[in-house]
Design brief:
Elements lengths: L3 E3 L2 E5 L18 H17 L7 E14 L2 E14 L3 E10 L3 H6 L6 H17 L4 E10 L5 E5 L4 H33 L11 H16 L2 E5 L6 H15 L3 E6 L5 H14 L5 E3 L3 H4 L18 H8 L1 H5 L4 E2 L1 H10 L4 H9 L4 E5 L1 H4 L6 H4 L4 E8 L5 H8 L3 E3 H12 L4 H27 L5 E3 L4 H25 L7 H16 L6 E6 L5 E6 L3 H8 L2 E8 L5 H7 L7 E5 L9 E6 L9 H18 L4 E5 L2 H8 L8 E4 L6 H13 L4 E6 L17 E5 L8 H14 L2 H18 L10 E6 L6 H4 L13 E3 L3 H13 L1
Parallel strand pairs: 2-4, 5-6, 8-18, 8-19, 9-12, 9-13, 10-11, 10-12, 13-18, 20-25, 20-26, 21-23, 21-24, 22-23, 24-25
Antiparallel strand pairs: 1-2, 3-4, 4-5, 6-7, 14-17, 15-16, 16-17
Length: about 800
């Protein structure tokens, strides 16, 4: 548990009193889930072997005791693994597990694990007080997970020495509390001299800052739909920093794209230059931070994680990193390579000492990879969470909770393990056969009851899949031990990655909720998938643990939809919808309704769409962005743009950041006009500023409705039953969000001017255009529905030419 302080009462566990482990386990000798599970199994096994006739044996014996220190009261709690209550004495046993080769285990000295000794000695001290001074004999039992070997160490208990150590720890904790209080007082004074004002006064930004300040003070959440140009990042960060700075809070700013982190950097830097004493960390994915020749996290292969913790402490690298107020991935990488320390592990370690962390959604919301050292408890109210481009979290959340298992993968692993005669591979093969049989049962069900169908919803036998996981896990643990003993190194081990796939699948399968629909796909030899239709339960449980969550986007429309699917509780959430900060007369939105852009009509109408693009570019020369719902549709229209005078730039699937940057630079610096053909929801339609003449017009072809497929239809059926809004939730809202996001690339400052052309008859349908932002309709002339688009374009540009 975390140390909790209320007035002069300090609540903590015995573990909170221990010194930092001086000999921690290596980073990747053992996969984390198995390490914990095996430790618990070893503890249980030792407990069950105890002779219960020898006195009265208690396992998991709970302790709680209050101690006075100065004017503080320390409430300490703990749980002893094993306790014998005898007539004239008590014996306690603390069971710990280690991962060591047999020879190392035989030679170890208990002094190598001072944190283990301290824990059992503190238990002895507290228990002696509870038992009115009874003599206490503490023992440490170490179990080696590699071979189940066991060693017992009698620990010398001298009460006066332990009391002295306990007083030292109390003094240190009080010192830290009082130091923190002094820091807060200093920060209040510092805050008064930091100028949080903005160079440009925008009423909408000020309105958002006031709302953010209010929810932070009340411990509430905020969902904010704030148009491009509002200055959302500063509007969220400035009041959050002011509040966090003097209220012992930290800020986690999550983004869906690395490029959005640059805005955070630019927003915070001026405040730090004024004297705001904070540390800001920018996280980057482990693969991108890897300093080894090959990305393979194993201490026997990678010199950067060999004895990482000891070497990190010896070199004092964390303190050196904290000499920087802003800690970028480049700084961490340089420090890591300089000291031959894993840069990614360094970034996670230094995160514990930072006031602001910026990183991907995964670090908070992905059940498999979230930062457990920060958020592995229900209450993390010492953190404020800011979600940038929050509309992206819905798809991410569904992805986290929609696992699949492929039969083809199981068969390949069966073939691989079947080639070996070693016992450990036989166990793996037998375990995989259980999963294979479950697929055979599904295949038989498909042939008997769903003949000719590629998909069918499946009833998952949860007990059978749980059994398959347990059998595979037991075999997999033996396999991991086998690899450690034999010093076998395998990069991208398929047997290991399959374990995590199976584990995630079974974990999600336990969720008995209508929002989770298992189905079987007969292609590729068979795929079993669980489709999460509504991630709000999981996302909401994460959101609820924070002091406050600020979710913002330029396209959080309709805001009620996003508040619902992201799991924001009504009772704790305020909503905010802002107008554009820029003059409405600087833009003209024109809907061209006479052309069908439905899938069946696209080939037929591609020439007419190309003609509208050509005409638009001819009327006013400049850079134009043309967004399509798919690459296929883009190519269909592009075939008829052959005689276009303006130079074309065409987005290709899988383009990298460097390629995008080169194109953006060309749009910004080239003297000749360009037309960029791109897809909605891609790298050119989100998180990019086309300031000034970089874009004077945006042409959007069709609502970007998701492609109709089995998974999407499951969403529609679910929301039809839940809200009678299946098509809206599954297709219209996600599709129109991409439209609004693409249109938001235009008008990035008060001086910018431009047009938005929406081509397609569905844009004139109330079911679609009612979702468009309210600020688009400030006056009757703001949005025009007309087939005479050329006259509207000429009229708009003529006004500015005059």
């Amino acid at each position: 548990m975390a140390i909790k302080v209320r007035d002069k009462n300090i609540s903590l566990s015995v573990r909170d009193l221990l010194q930092t482990a001086s000999r921690p386990q290596t980073i990747s000798s053992f996969p984390l889930p198995q390490r914990g599970m095996l430790g618990r199994q070893a503890q249980t096994k030792v407990q069950q072997q105890k002779d219960r006739n020898f006195g009265l044996f208690h396992k998991e014996y709970s302790l709680r005791r209050d101690y006075k220190y100065l004017d503080y009261t320390f409430s300490i709690q703990g749980r002893i693994d094993g306790l014998y209550k005898l007539k004239n004495r008590a014996e306690i046993e603390e069971i710990k597990s280690v991962v060591l080769r047999a020879a190392e285990f035989k030679k170890l000295h208990i002094e190598q694990y001072p944190e283990f000794r301290e824990q059992v000695l503190f238990y002895a001290y507290i228990l002696q007080d509870e038992l009115d001074g009874l003599e206490i004999f503490p023992y440490l039992i170490l179990v080696n997970l590699i071979n189940d070997a066991k060693r017992t160490f009698k620990i010398d208990f001298k009460r006066s020495s332990v009391e002295q150590l306990l007083q030292q720890r109390f003094a240190l904790i009080v010192q830290n509390i009082e130091k923190e209080q002094a820091v807060l007082e200093t920060r209040k004074k510092e805050l008064a001299v930091v100028d949080f004002s903005l160079p440009e006064k925008r009423p909408q930004q000020q309105q958002m800052m006031e709302q953010v300040t209010q929810v932070l003070q009340e411990g509430l959440h905020l969902t904010a739909s704030a148009p491009t140009g509002t200055g959302k990042t500063a509007a969220a960060l400035f009041p959050a920093l002011r509040y966090a700075y003097v209220n012992s809070k930290k800020i986690f700013f999550v983004t869906s794209k690395t490029t959005q982190q640059n805005i955070v950097y630019e927003t915070i830097t001026p405040l730090i230059e004024q004297g705001l004493d904070i540390h800001v960390l920018f996280l980057r994915a482990s693969e991108k931070m890897c300093a080894n020749d090959v990305y393979f996290c194993h201490e026997a292969f990678c010199p950067f994680i060999q004895d990482y913790h000891e070497r990190c402490l010896d070199k004092n690298v964390i303190s050196e990193l904290l000499e920087n107020s802003i800690i970028t991935p480049e700084i961490v990488y340089a420090k890591g390579t300089e000291n031959t320390l894993c840069p990614f592990e360094l970034s996670l370690d230094v995160a514990l000492y930072c006031d602001v962390i910026t990183g991907d959604y995964n670090y908070v919301f992905d059940p498999a990879v979230y930062l457990r050292r920060l958020f592995d408890r229900k209450d993390y109210a010492d953190w404020i969470l800011i979600i940038d481009e929050a509309h992206n979290l819905y798809d991410r959340g569904m992805g986290y909770l929609s696992p699949e298992i492929r039969f083809e993968r199981v068969k390949n692993l069966l073939s691989q393990t079947g080639r070996y005669k070693t016992k450990v591979y036989k166990l793996l093969n037998k375990a995989l056969q259980e999963t294979e049989q479950l697929f055979k049962d599904l295949d038989l069900e498909g042939r008997l009851h769903h003949s000719g169908q590629q998909y069918f919803t499946a009833d998952i036998n949860r007990q059978a899949w749980q059994s398959a996981l347990e059998v595979y896990e037991a075999a997999f643990i033996k396999y991991v031990i086998h690899k450690i003993k034999k010093r076998i190194l395998l990069m991208d081990d398929p047997l290991e990655s399959f374990f995590y796939e199976l584990r995630r699948f079974v974990q999600v399968s336990r969720i008995q909720d209508r929002a989770f629909v298992p189905f079987y796909n007969a292609e590729a030899e068979g795929i079993l998938k669980i489709q999460c239709c509504d991630p709000s339960g999981w996302l909401g449980s994460r959101i609820d643990g924070f002091h406050s969550v600020l979710a913002m986007s330029a396209t959080l429309d309709p805001i009620s939809f996003y508040q619902d699917v992201l799991g924001f509780a009504d009772y704790r959430t305020n909503t905010l919808t802002l107008d554009s900060p820029f003059p409405a007369e600087n833009r003209r939105i024109i809907i061209v309704p006479r052309i069908s852009t439905r899938f069946k009509d696209r080939v037929q109408n591609a020439p007419a769409i190309a003609e509208i693009i050509r005409n638009t570019v001819k009327i006013h020369s400049g850079n134009y962005l043309v967004f399509f719902p798919s690459f296929n549709f883009l190519q269909q229209v592009n075939l008829f743009l052959g005689n276009l005078q303006t130079e074309k730039i065409i987005q290709k699937p899988g383009m990298k950041e460097a390629e995008r940057s080169k194109i953006l630079e060309e749009l910004e610096k080239s003297a000749s006009p360009h037309i960029l053909l791109a897809v909605m929801g891609g790298i050119f339609s989100e998180g990019v500023d086309y300031a000034g003449s970089m874009a004077e017009g945006v042409i959007i072809i069709s609502p970007a409705l998701p492609q109709i497929n089995y998974e999407r239809e499951l969403l529609r059926n679910y929301y039809d039953e839940e809200k009678e809004m299946g098509f809206d939730y599954a297709y219209i809202y996600p599709g129109m969000n991409k439209v609004i996001q693409s249109a938001g690339r235009l008008i990035r400052s008060a001086a910018d001017k431009g047009i938005v052309l929406l081509i397609g008859e569905r844009f004139s349908d109330d079911r679609y255009n009612s979702i468009l932002p309210e600020y688009w309709f400030e006056s009757a002339q703001d949005v025009v529905i007309t087939d005479d688009y050329m006259q509207e374009l000429k009229s708009f540009w003529a006004k500015w030419e005059k």
